[in-house]
Fold this sequence. Notes:
By secondary structure, the protein is an alpha+beta fold. It has helices at 2-6, 9-22, and strands at residues 43-47, 58-61, 64-68, 78-82, 93-95, 100-102, 109-110, 116-118, 129-133, 136-140.
Amino acid sequence: RAFLGTLTGPVAVVCAVCMGACSKTGSSPNNGTTGGTMGGPANFTIDLGSNLTTIGSSIVESGVIVVRLSTGNTPSSFTAVQVGCTHEGTAINFNQSANKFICPNHGSTFTTDGTVTLGPAASNLKKYNINISGNTMTVSG
């Protein structure tokens, strides 16, 4: 605090933001976030005529990452899991060449169905239900 008191203007703001981002509050990895970020409820649709048209493409919506795994518009051609890593809630990414989800924060990895394969994450990602009617995908759970 004494150090921050000596700073002025934008430097003080940047330092305060960084310190707040690095501090931990609460006891859950997601610090109480909801709405799918850490496996909360989700219910939304995606137009497959204009989205997720190539293998490996992804969309993040309502705290869920949806990825096209193969060709065809069947539920098995896609996966939908919570986007927040179960370790500290950092948004995961899909690595197409490795066919897995990777957390950029501490390196946890997960299979396409959300099973943790490398920690520090100790629990699986929540997997969401996918239904497809024509070119409309519904993600729920």
